[in-house]
């Protein structure tokens, strides 16, 4: 494809010229650029790289130009991703808006909603969070009870969400609300966009086992939300909710792959802590586990790429996203367990002398990885979806 070859050449040259050297190194978690009204950049290079990519539309390369995207075809988007991987370029901006809300607005939003929200996501001006789970509605998401009652040109929203990641930093929340309490549970749900600055919205952080506090309880008390912030039809929210989850699960499945770049390579770590005998890892049991992990990780990566190549317009692979979510997150947990097994008691530190920052990071990453097979829907729920909707097995 001559056009694609030309694009590849041009984009590679552009990246070479515009991606600062410091933005071509693995990215620690605290240097991720999330954007938003309170956006912060750890270094001037991070800001420069972000601004250059925004100008090019390459924070969201395949979104249409009129919504702040790069207007690239799916092939060009994949080619750009390949070039960025090859050069080790950091993602200039990461956000729930890019991964989850944007793609569903492109499919289900009105023209006015697309023009209002997509460019702000692309330019990193607004940071979104996800208001799905409630205290009594996690796996059984359709059992949610946050109410939105029509009142003139507004909905009056009351209720509580839980586990809302980064709600305390977010500017807006995309939310599932109950708009018909009498309908069957999947049929009385709507998808609403709410400004976190609206009076009556309140958040309270919750601490994770890893010590970090990435998520919150979110409360809505008589919040007035304009009807124009309803996405899709009234009581049609479940269809949108499911589509968004497919995007979310595809994103979470790739978490392990993304973080691999920012961590020590397992093979190198194994060599340094276990030593070598006759050019091979000295510990035969761990050597075997490491080889199995490496083979499975490679097979998973290739399967993901094949699915992405087969998908039209960059869409997620439908219910098959449950397979990726399940396998990717279990794989990431295995990776963390292996790292822990190699370091032994050195990887069980929390703080204090005797533990290197790398060891402490390993402990916390291992604890954080436990949440991978819960967030975005638990592994058990993914297995249920695979059984019913991918394999078509009877109930
Ligand atoms: C790090 C992290 C970030 C998160 N971020 C967000 C966010 O930003 N926004 C948001 O809305 N939510 C978020 N969540 C919430 C997440 O979506 C829920 O935790 C998840 O859906 C599980 O719901 P639950 O915690 O209520 O567990 P429950 O639904 O109570 O499940 C408890 C256990 O029962 C099992 N189980 C339940 N039902 C079945 C069944 N039918 N068959 C087999 N087993 C079953 C589950 O697998 C699980 O092991 C986050 C969670 C984590 C851990």
Reconstruct the topology from this structure.
Elements: H1 2-18, H2 44-56, H3 74-87, H4 96-108, H5 111-122, E1 128-131, E2 147-151, E3 154-165, E4 172-178, E5 189-195, E6 201-206, E7 215-226, E8 230-231, H6 237-253, H7 255-260, H8 266-274, E9 276-277, E10 280-281, H9 284-310, H10 321-343, H11 357-369, H12 379-390
Parallel strand pairs: 1-4
Antiparallel strand pairs: 2-3, 3-7, 4-5, 5-8, 6-7, 9-10
Helix pairs in contact: 1-3, 4-5, 4-6, 6-10, 8-10, 9-10, 10-11, 10-12
Bound molecules: flavin-adenine dinucleotide (FAD).
Description:
The chain is α+β, with helices and mostly antiparallel strands and 395 residues long. It contains twelve helices and ten strands. The chain has helices spanning 2-18, 44-56, 74-87, 96-108, 111-122, 237-253, 255-260, 266-274, 284-310, 321-343, 357-369, 379-390, and strands at 128-131, 147-151, 154-165, 172-178, 189-195, 201-206, 215-226, 230-231, 276-277, 280-281. Strands 1-4-5-8 form a four-stranded mixed beta sheet. A hairpin with an 8-residue loop joins strand 6 and strand 7. The protein is globular and about 75 Å long. The mean pLDDT is 91.
């Amino acid at each position: 494809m001559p056009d694609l070859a030309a694009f590849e050449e041009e984009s590679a040259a552009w990246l070479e010229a515009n991606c600062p050297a410091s933005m071509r190194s693995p990215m620690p978690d605290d240097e991720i650029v999330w954007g938003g009204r309170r956006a912060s950049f750890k270094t001037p290079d991070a800001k420069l790289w972000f601004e250059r990519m925004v100008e090019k539309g390459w924070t969201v390369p395949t979104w249409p130009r009129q919504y702040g995207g790069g207007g690239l075809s799916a092939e060009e988007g994949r080619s750009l991703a390949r070039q960025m991987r090859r050069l080790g370029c950091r993602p200039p901006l990461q956000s729930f808006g890019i991964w989850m809300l944007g793609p569903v607005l492109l499919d289900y939003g009105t023209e006015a909603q697309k023009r209002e929200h997509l460019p702000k996501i692309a330019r990193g001006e607004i940071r979104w969070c996800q208001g799905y789970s409630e205290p009594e509605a996690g796996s059984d998401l359709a059992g949610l009870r946050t109410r939105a009652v029509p009142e003139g040109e507004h909905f009056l929203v009351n209720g509580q969400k839980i586990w809302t990641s980064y709600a305390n930093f977010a500017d807006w929340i995309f939310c599932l609300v109950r708009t018909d309490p009498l309908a069957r549970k999947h049929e009385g749900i709507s998808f609403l966009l709410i400004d976190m600055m609206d009076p009556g919205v309140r958040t309270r952080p919750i601490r994770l086992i890893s010590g970090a506090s990435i998520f919150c309880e979110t409360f809505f008390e008589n919040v007035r939300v304009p009807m124009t912030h309803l996405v899709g039809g009234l009581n049609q929210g479940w269809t949108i909710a499911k589509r968004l989850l497919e995007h979310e699960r595809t994103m979470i499945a790739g978490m392990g792959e993304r973080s691999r770049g920012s961590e020590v390579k397992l093979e190198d770590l194994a060599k340094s802590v276990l030593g070598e005998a006759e050019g091979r890892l000295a510990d035969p049991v761990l050597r075997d586990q490491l080889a199995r992990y490496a083979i499975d990780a490679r097979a998973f990566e290739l399967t993901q790429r094949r699915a992405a190549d087969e998908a039209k317009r960059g869409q997620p692979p439908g219910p098959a996203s449950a397979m990726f979510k399940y396998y990717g997150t279990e794989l990431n947990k295995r990776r963390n367990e292996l790292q822990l097994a190699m370091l032994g008691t050195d990887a069980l530190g929390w703080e204090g002398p005797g533990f290197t920052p790398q060891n402490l990071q390993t402990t916390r990453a291992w604890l954080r990885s436990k949440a991978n097979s819960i967030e975005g829907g638990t592994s058990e729920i993914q297995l249920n979806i695979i059984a019913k909707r991918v394999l078509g097995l009877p109930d």
